[in-house]
């Protein structure tokens, strides 16, 4: 992660030196939160790369820019309606967007066309200038037509632009959504890896401001004026009184001061060791490093040079989140720091190095379901470095049709982890869940029960977790695959073959189709096919563990 932050910081420094501004007055960022974002690039999930890149780039956006945040596929699996404008466009929304992105679940479909349409409407694109930045790792899966939408928005909008970042798409896949950007005068950027995504976000979320018209040549002066100094502002920043100047990683925000002493228009934002020249007048200068900041009012007079000293009263905290003592740092571990004076706690991932206001820093590390919190005193000008141990074991789970047989690797695979000890009402506390083969869990030491579902087959299996240990849990489902064909059917339904005392059979699953295939526990079953004229046919079948059974009902 440190490499990611350095790369993005370097890109932002280069952009700031060319006087960057946001690409539009109001912008909505749309993030693909579909299940495919769990795929990995260079060993890291796409969703974590997107979160980290968003958080870093948003820190550079001026506070008065109005940014909104929308996501799709983060609440429901298989839904084309799962689109939500979570953070409406507003100034100072960077922290809120980062926090929301960190909390998203990635599990749904990709209704990108409908999402862009909703974002444009939220921005009132038919009345005002509007920009949408779409970050997607997949193509439209909800029958939308992004090319047609681009033409529609361009034709009816006042000044609408859609920028599209194709994250991990192939060149051929990119062509299918590039038209959305092309048809609105926007950019399509192919981002195949972590570095490319960083560069794409910088290019779309921060864009060069228009080059000003050259000022007219001044009228000849009757006499030469005295030479002005090259710079009239050379501010100095230190973490603590008497400390060395900070020249890297810090930022300077310079605002015009209003008559009432409050901040006016932003003049510039600079980084590192800053030397500049300001026109005579009243200013407010804000110095930042990490989560610490301080500001001063300064009156600039002609012919004078100013070197104000800014003291942050801050220190440096370095946290190494580990699952157990001596284990490697977990890059995806969440490190939440609630520092003195914070409006909202700051969230980082993996090894965290951050400048914080001096005082008691409340640090919480989360690795999977393991959570550890500690209050760490930090003195101004000092550095505190420490390991924080979440105390978890690592578990990888897979389902097999029979012990030693084929691994279940299709859709419909789910794993739910519950506490082994039952509550007083006989239920068990749910701990966490995951979908798909090779599901991974980081769990505190305890006895658990793994409830595994493969289509219609469900098995419970106990297991125990110890701190620092790895466990490969293999679940034998004692199941086979039942494939049913019912020509002309409108519905296929599977029942237990044995009737209960009332003569009823338990329904196990159904499909409104002429074909139905599902994993199911070994045993005897009755299958009923219904037609649109309410006629029905029935067949019986025996499913054996680890084998495929085929049945035609007609």
From TrEMBL:
Organism of origin: Mesorhizobium caraganae
Gene3D superfamilies: von Willebrand factor, type A domain
Name of the protein described by the UniProt record: VWA domain-containing protein
Location of region: Disordered: 531-554
VWFA domain residues: 26-205
Domain of life: Bacteria
InterPro entries on file: VWF_A, vWFA_dom_sf
Swiss-Prot/TrEMBL keywords: Signal
Signal peptide residues on this chain, from the entry's feature table: 1-23
Bias (Basic and acidic residues) ranges: 545-554
